[in-house]
Design goal:
By secondary structure, the chain is of the alpha/beta class. Helix content is 34%, strand content 17%. It is built from six helices and seven strands.
Length: 215
């Protein structure tokens, strides 16, 4: 169970209710589902015609009640929360699950079990920053669910050079965001803006979802 002392599952939805493809996103470890980043992603995909939901894990729901910051729940609780969120969404037949950083990583651990149509990771935490030996990739090698990982080129959780050496399966596509950090923000010296990089991420995701919808 996703934590008996957690408030009921809350979610927010954007996009047309009759969309043929539904995308369900979870937040990262330290911030809730309504951050500017996730809101921009959700509304951008909704404007492209997709139904997009966001939900929060139990520890973040408790934080909304009492304002106390907490570490993430244990993996089994986070995975159970994903099952609960998919069930609450009505388990649509054409469902893509994923999210920001930890949210996408936990989704990747239950994607095959849930039989979803696709997996979308926004900044996958391949390893903790500064600890490239502590990989979180073992389960990815058995992943057959069509997957898109959108990653900033400067992401300390996994750079292009590091990821190229992981030998990820062909089911996983990667979209690299120019000079982006873990939230795709570029350095000023790059000549790019955060808005441009978020638009680039949305364009890559939308193209991938369109291919998935036709498959």
């Amino acid at each position: 169970m996703p934590g008996a002392d957690a408030p009921p599952l809350g979610s927010t939805w954007d996009g047309p209710a009759d969309a043929p493809l539904v995308v369900l996103l979870a937040h990262g470890a330290g911030a809730p589902m309504d951050t500017p980043f996730l809101t921009r992603m959700a509304r951008g995909l909704a404007s492209a015609g997709h139904r997009v939901g966001r939900f929060e894990f139990p520890y973040m729901r408790r934080r909304r009640v009492d304002g106390r910051r907490r570490p993430p729940d244990p993996p089994r609780v986070l995975e159970a929360a994903w099952r609960e969120a998919v069930a609450a969404a009505g388990s649509p037949p054409r469902l893509v699950i994923g999210g920001k950083s930890m949210g996408g990583r936990i989704a990747s651990q239950v994607a095959s079990e849930l039989g979803v149509a696709g997996l979308l990771c926004l900044g996958y935490p391949f390893h903790p920053p500064g600890r490239p030996e502590r990989l979180r990739t073992a389960h990815l090698h058995d992943l057959s669910v069509p997957t898109l990982i959108v990653q900033g080129e400067r992401d300390p959780f996994g750079t292009p050079e590091e990821v190229a050496a992981y030998g990820l399966p062909p089911s996983i596509e990667l979209a690299w965001i120019a000079d982006g950090d873990h939230s795709f923000a570029p350095r000023k010296a790059s000549g790019r803006t955060s808005a441009q990089n978020l638009d680039a991420a949305l364009a890559a995701i939308t193209a991938w979802l369109d291919r998935l919808e036709r498959s």
